[in-house]
């Protein structure tokens, strides 16, 4: 399975961006998908996750109410709509996929990773 993120860029505080992650390869094996982020000099941390059907989502407290995860299985794509962006949201955002159906928030729970897309929020 290969994951390719897009949609990152430079935005002013208070603005919005939508990230996309397209999966290819043995996509039928994928269940839960997630977004993580890694700020410069910091560890990679969980942002959001969504189950295969999209019926369940889970968010980090830091983004709850501002970010929304969704997916279109017909397009093998997962999205992260980011609103009311803050400078502290600046990071490389990674898409991840796991074979299991449960939502987990730790990096080792995910089997596949994208290369990341940079989001920079200016103040």
How is this fold's topology laid out?
Blueprint: E1 2-6, E2 9-12, E3 17-24, E4 33-38, E5 44-50, E6 57-59, E7 67-72, E8 77-82, E9 91-97, E10 112-113, E11 117-122
Parallel strand pairs: 2-11
Antiparallel strand pairs: 1-3, 3-8, 4-5, 4-9, 5-6, 7-8, 9-10, 9-11
Give a structural overview.
With 123 residues, this protein is mostly beta strands. The chain is built from no helices and eleven strands. Strands 2, 4, 5, 6, 9, 10 and 11 form a seven-stranded mixed β-sheet that branches. The chain is globular, with a radius of gyration of 13 Å.
Keywords:
123 residues, mainly beta, seven-stranded mixed sheet, four-stranded antiparallel sheet, 11 strands, 49% strand, globular
Distance between the termini: 37 Å
Strand content: over 45%
List the helices and strands in order.
EEEEEEEEEEE
**Largest beta sheet, briefly?**
7 strands, mixed
Give me the secondary-structure category: mainly beta
Number of helices: 0
Q: In total, how many beta strands?
A: 11
* Morphology call: globular
Low-confidence stretches: none
In short:
With 123 residues, this protein is mainly β. It contains no helices and eleven strands. The chain has strands at residues 2-6, 9-12, 17-24, 33-38, 44-50, 57-59, 67-72, 77-82, 91-97, 112-113, 117-122.
